Amino acid sequence: MDTILFISGGEIIIVVLVVLLLFGAKSIPDVARMLGKGMNEFRRASDEIKREFRENTSDITDVVEETKKELNQEVKEVNKSIEEETRDIDSYHLESKEETENKDSKQDTDVPPLSKDGPVSREDSIDS
User: Fold this and answer.
1) Which residues have CB under 8 Å from 7's CB, separation 6+?
2) Could you give the CA distance from residue 98 to residue 114 in angstroms, rounded to a whole number?
3) C-beta separation of 19 from 26 below 8 A
4) pTM of the model
5) CB 3 within 8 A of CB 12
6) Cα→Cα distances 19→6, 27, 88, Å
7) pLDDT tens track for 51-100
8) How far is CA 40 from CA 14, 30, 33, 104, in A?
């Protein structure tokens, strides 16, 4: 047989027989009505508790949302200031071509330009 809430079919039959013996066939509808009213009252009470909980926590939720917005704004401002401060720093020497050309034209003429022949080996410097 099937089980409902860990009770087998035979146990359900025994419970129904005990209810019939205790309350009688005439009072079973009254007992069912009382159980239905009790369940409805329980549902109303739980809905009321949920409603009050939502009303009382809405203030807290509003404060949390406001604080979250303020923190996000502060993070954006800090990121912006960090970007502004580090914009001029080029730790990886990733200058643009224009900046490199401008610097090359401003270099001192004391330093001879690199030869276009390619790299110089040690052997070439030792022989001369």
Assistant:
1) 15
2) 20
3) no
4) 0.38
5) no
6) 19, 10, 87
7) 998 888 888 888 899 999 999 999 999 999 888 887 777 666 565 555 55
8) 27, 15, 10, 87
